[in-house]
UniProtKB/TrEMBL annotation:
It comes from the Bacteria. This is Uncharacterized protein.
Length: 233
């Protein structure tokens, strides 16, 4: 258990956060007294009748963060009541507001894929931990096993601590420069597409070309112009 707590502290917890004092639990508060976080825990819950869509959404985000932003691989946990949590580890703490702005930006990048940004910074299940009412456990899992848990509600028994450590010890944190660059990119409005240049007639802009210039260029391209419209007398 000491090794597990060491890994959780290395990746996700701040010394003055309630979770650092209590360790894994069903309602862990990851926010420090100063309103800072080192963990962005994004929930992906199953919608009624949506099959494994929540798992597909998690994969879209997890793969996109690595491919588009160069982030290290995140951790994945299965929640005790069904669904998943994607865990992003920050090397340096950021205000909760920045974490929410980041998730809001991801929501614009991948519409209808992420939960509302205000779900970030609220108490979450910090695995491994039991749900006494449901009799199931939240636990970190190997991402390759995620699809097999899409219809499950957590684990039926406590996961081995050594296995939980193994899922975490190879993970790295997002460097401060990586996170700030990603946040700036997500919040920068996309530049409007440049207007296409006017059609040219043999090197002349269309607005400068005479009717003879236009007819000559069309003839050179094997096109016979047809003038269907005339100016009123």
């Amino acid at each position: 258990m000491d090794k597990l707590l060491s890994e959780l502290n290395r990746l996700y917890l701040l010394p003055d956060s309630p979770a650092a004092q209590r360790g894994p639990g069903p309602a862990a508060d990851l926010v420090s007294g100063a309103g800072l976080v080192r963990a962005i825990a994004i929930p992906f819950r199953k919608a009624p009748g949506a099959d494994a869509q929540h798992w597909e959404h998690l994969c879209t985000v997890a793969n996109g963060l690595q491919a588009d932003f160069g982030f290290p691989a995140p951790a994945v946990s299965v929640t005790s009541t069904g669904g998943f949590m994607l865990w992003l580890s920050l090397a340096a703490p950021v205000p909760v507001a920045d974490a929410r702005r980041f998730v809001a930006g991801l929501g614009l990048l991948w519409p209808d894929t992420l939960p509302p940004a205000d779900t970030i910074g609220v108490p979450v299940e910090l695995p491994p931990c039991p749900n006494a009412a449901a009799g199931t456990w939240a636990a970190f899992i190997h991402p390759g096993m995620g699809a097999s848990f899409a219809d499950e509600s957590g684990l039926d028994m406590a996961p081995p601590a050594a296995g939980q450590v193994a899922f975490l010890e190879s993970l790295d944190s997002i460097a401060p420069g990586q996170f700030s660059a990603a946040l700036a990119r997500l919040e920068t409005p996309a530049a409007p597409a440049a207007a296409p240049p006017p059609l040219a007639a043999d090197g002349l802009l269309l607005e400068d070309a005479t009717l003879e210039d236009i007819v000559r260029v069309l003839h050179a391209r094997g096109i016979e112009p047809t003038f269907r419209f005339t100016l009123p007398r």
